C-alpha cells in the first residue's frame, strides 16, 4: 500500500490556504478543499480562523456550478506585520512582512555581536522601529518577531548554546528579554535553519527534501525533511562547520578543536590565510572584491574553499539524498565558489544521488533567513488562534 503524505498541521493548513488564495489557485471553499485534499468542514474552520485574524476576507460571488453561487475569498488589506532579523557578526539584515508572508521592506544595519547581547538587541529593536515606520517605541500593528543567530540555538529556551563566535551570549535569555520589551511572541533560531526554511518554502513542495548551506564568515546548514525543519537530538543538525577535514591539518578553530572545515572553507578562514600570504583583507567582502578583480591568490583560495566544502557535503548528500542543495551567504554570491562545490559533490556522490539533484544559489538570496523567520512567526500566530475554535 502506498504511503500517504502526512496531513499538514493547523498552521501548515492555514499557510497553504493563504498561499493558494494569494496566487489565485483556489478562491472558494470548495476549490480549497479539493486542492488540499481536506474535508470542507476543516477548510471552513481554517477560513474562520484566518478571517478572525484579519488575513482573509470572504466577499463577492463566483460562478455557480449548480446551487448557490460560491463566495470568493481574497487577502485582506494589511492587518498587521511581522518583523524579522538575520544577525551576522558585524551586521544584521532586517525584514518587514505582512501576515500573508509577503516581504514588504528590508534594511541592513551595522552591529557587532562582540558588544554583547543587550547592546546588540537594543540596536535591533531600534532598527525594527525604523523598518516598521514608527517613532521611538512605536511598533503598533506588530504581531510577532523572529531573529536568526549565527550559533547553535536552544529553541525551547530561546538561548544560544556553546557559541564559539559570540561567547558573551551563552545562556542569555534572548527570547525572554525581547518578549519583555515588546510583549509579543518571539521566535529565536539558528540563522542557517531559518535560511533553509525560507528557501525551501519559496522553491519546493511540502513533501520534498533540501539542504541549505550558509557560507559566510562561518559555515552553517539547515536540513529540511518533507517540508519540515530537522533539528536533531540536541538541536545541532546540519552544523557542518566543525567537521574535521584532513586538509585543515592542525589549524586551530574557534571551537577549541583543530582541523575543522571552518578553518579552510569559511570567510574567516580565507581572510586569515590570505593575510598570511600578504594580502590586505579584513572581511569576506574584501576577499570577494579581490576575486572580482581576478587576484590569483584570492581566486585560488576561494575555489579551494568550495572544493573542501563540497567534499563534506558529498557525504551528506550520499546519506540524505535531497532534492536540492542550496547555497547562500556572502561566498555564495560567487559562481566560482558554487561551481567548485557542485563539481566536488558530483565527483563524490553515487550517480543515483545526483540524478535529479539541483545545486545552486538560493533564489531568495540574502533574504532567505528573513523569510524562514517570518514563516515560523506566522506559524506561532496561527497556532495561538487555533485552539479558540
Overall description:
- Belongs to the ROK (NagC/XylR) family.
- Keywords: Kinase, Transferase.
- It is a single chain.
- This protein has 389 residues and is α/β, with parallel strands linked by helices.
- The chain folds into three domains: 66 residues, Winged helix-like DNA-binding domain superfamily/Winged helix DNA-binding domain (Arc Repressor Mutant, subunit A, Orthogonal Bundle), CATH 1.10.10.10; 131 residues, Nucleotidyltransferase, domain 5; 173 residues, Nucleotidyltransferase, domain 5, CATH 3.30.420.40.
- It has 13 helices and 14 strands.
- The strands form four sheets. It has a five-stranded mixed beta sheet, sandwiched between helices.
- Helix 1 packs across helix 3, helix 9 packs across helix 10 and helix 10 crosses helix 11.
- It is globular, with a radius of gyration of 22 Å.
- The N terminus is likely disordered.
